[in-house]
């Protein structure tokens, strides 16, 4: 296993900010304590062994699970032998009822067809072409925050608004058929409802047995469906009249598999639009929220960021290549608080990972939340140190030790879109305002609700620059 990646020589460990997180457990929880804890907050169930051992295999409530934190063995699971591992039933039971059978949940040939069809939509050239729209959303966000000079804002809510603005400017350029704030609230309600892991899902109880979370999520899921149906109907009419804008929605509706010429079915189109709205915007909003929280507690990092954006910006906005430190801040925020805290796969056939045999049907897990804080891979892993992602320090990070967007065939198709969006929005924010955590504010703790978010939102004081 790789040795810890060293921090730049100038890094002052003692003065770096270490965000509060649930402490690792000394021993695994018993069955009933585990079921209660995993429903409340799954990231609070990891033990000390998980953060120090390259492999941990154990029998528990969900059967045999092997957690892999060795980068070379992660490569084996997610890349070299990916065909032997499919998404496990628990993930599909939690996500599919709301997100449908899009890229996030589809399997087999259905997934391969969707991936081939959608890949050109997220090409580097296409994503770079959205920089102007993202800069426009960033400028709007900066003006909104600056008007709150001397006050405060729920940063989590503001980042949700901003990322929905980006979606409207890049995917739905003729406008959303609903108030974006209402859509944002529906996304939050949906993830809050389906996020807690239901014991019925842990034990594999058939899907026809009602789950409380899914019952609570139904109104939000119906709202998504109505919004998406109207979006598709409007856009198809514009395409028929040859008046449709060339945004991501038009590209999605017109997309064809390069191998077969086959387009996506209506259900596949709807599932992927819902995925882009619910999952795509949520991960970026959370990355920005955690980045701003860490910057509010690290004056030196915040000052370095402000100096960079003051030197790099123009009237037209920013370019990502001029913002290496802003990008490093986002990457470090996603290291500490990865958008997807764990990836789980089910073995289709027997395998061997190092010294451990993986039985057919058992679950193999890669947990970015654990991996990114693993004490054998990272020096001072609990500290917020953006410099890890600059220059030679960035080059020294093992490829499969840092997985904010997954890896292998199922790596997030929108990762370049999300990273570009987050960096540009952060630059506009840093040029306009500075944030501080109000005195006496309780610790900000991460809670896993599909994604990682602050447990009670994040209200920061605002000072206009």
Automatic annotation (TrEMBL):
Return the Gene3D superfamilies for the record.
Cytochrome P450
Which domain of life, per UniProt?
Bacteria
InterPro entries reported for this sequence: Cyt_P450, Cyt_P450_CS, Cyt_P450_E_grp-I, Cyt_P450_sf, Cytochrome_P450_Monoox
What the entry lists under SUPFAM superfamilies is as follows: Cytochrome P450
Annotated keywords: Heme, Iron, Metal-binding, Monooxygenase, Oxidoreductase
Has keyword Metal-binding? yes
Which Pfam families does the UniProt entry name for this protein?
p450
Similarity comment: Belongs to the cytochrome P450 family.
Question: What is the protein's name according to its record?
Answer: Cytochrome P450
**Source lineage:** Bacteria, Pseudomonadati, Pseudomonadota, Alphaproteobacteria, Hyphomicrobiales
């Amino acid at each position: 296993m790789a040795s810890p990646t060293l921090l730049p020589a100038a890094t002052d460990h003692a003065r770096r900010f270490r965000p509060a997180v649930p402490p690792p457990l000394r021993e695994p929880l018993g069955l009933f304590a585990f079921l209660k804890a995993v429903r409340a907050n799954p990231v609070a169930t990891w033990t000390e062994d998980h953060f120090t051992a390259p492999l941990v295999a154990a029998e528990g409530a969900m059967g045999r699970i092997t957690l892999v934190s060795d980068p070379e063995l992660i490569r084996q699971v997610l890349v070299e032998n990916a065909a032997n591992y499919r998404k496990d039933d628990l993930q599909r039971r939690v996500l599919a009822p709301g997100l449908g059978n899009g890229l996030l949940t589809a399997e087999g040939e259905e997934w391969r067809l969707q991936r081939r069809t959608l890949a050109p939509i997220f090409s580097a050239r296409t994503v770079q072409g959205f920089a102007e729209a993202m800069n426009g959303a960033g400028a709007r966000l900066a003006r909104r925050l600056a008007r709150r000079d001397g006050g405060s804002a729920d940063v989590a809510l503001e980042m949700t608004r901003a990322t929905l603005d980006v979606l409207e400017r890049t995917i739905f350029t003729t406008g959303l058929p609903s108030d974006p704030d209402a859509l944002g609230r529906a996304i939050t309600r949906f993830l809050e409802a389906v996020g807690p892991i239901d014991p019925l899902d842990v034990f594999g109880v058939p899907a026809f047995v009602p789950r409380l979370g899914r019952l609570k999520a139904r109104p939000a899921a119906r709202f998504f469906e109505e919004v998406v149906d109207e979006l598709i109907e409007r856009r198809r009419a514009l395409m028929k009249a040859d008046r449709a804008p060339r945004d991501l929605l038009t590209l999605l509706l017109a997309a064809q598999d390069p191998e077969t010429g086959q387009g996506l079915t209506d259900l596949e189109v709807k599932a992927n639009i819902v995925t882009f709205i619910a999952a795509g915007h949520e991960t970026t909003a959370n990355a920005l929220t955690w980045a701003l929280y860490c910057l509010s507690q690290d004056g030196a990092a915040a000052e370095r960021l402000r100096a960079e954006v003051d030197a790099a910006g123009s009237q037209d906005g920013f370019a990502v290549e001029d913002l290496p430190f802003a990008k490093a801040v986002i990457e470090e925020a996603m290291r500490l608080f990865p958008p997807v805290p764990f990836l789980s796969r089910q073995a289709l056939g027997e395998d061997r990972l190092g010294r451990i045999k993986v039985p057919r049907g058992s679950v193999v897990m890669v947990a970015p939340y654990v991996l990114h804080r693993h004490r054998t891979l990272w020096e001072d892993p609990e500290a917020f140190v953006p410099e890890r992602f600059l220059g030679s320090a960035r080059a020294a990070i093992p490829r499969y030790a840092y997985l904010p967007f997954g890896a292998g065939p199922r790596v997030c198709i929108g990762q370049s879109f999300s990273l570009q969006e987050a960096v540009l929005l952060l630059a506009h924010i840093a040029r306009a305002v500075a944030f501080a955590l109000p005195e006496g504010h309780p610790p900000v703790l991460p809670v896993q609700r599909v994604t990682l978010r602050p447990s009670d939102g994040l209200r920061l004081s605002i000072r206009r620059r």
